[in-house]
Amino acid sequence: MRRLLPGILLFAVATSLAGCNDDNATPTTPTTPTTPTAPTVTETFTGKLNMNGGITFPFTATAAGTVTLTLASLSPDATLPIGLSLGTWTGSACQIVIANDAAAQAAAVSGTLTSAASLCARVYDTGKVTTPVEFSVSIVHP
Question: What percent of the chain has pLDDT above 90?
Fold first, then answer.
């Protein structure tokens, strides 16, 4: 039995050291996955705004992201202040969320969506239109 004990101890030490590794390799740093962004869509609408009038353009954003409505052109007077707004489309009306009641040509309103939604853009007279004006708006959305 005395002769067996040193052999058992030697075997125990050898097997415990077999699992050790002295590798000094640099650990890899995990990377944060990127969230894919939805492609953006640009829609253009045109119309004629009459005194005390308003025109609504429903559209659908298919994902979360930024929505921007820009008054691209206003004729014959590019400096005429009119109303420009973004809202939620209820199916029959535009419930205004963001508005600029003094928008001239190149003015924009912008908002951020947390999910897909039925939206609307509205162009309207704020009491300054005396003769019909032609306009064009562009909407950039996901």
Answer: 73
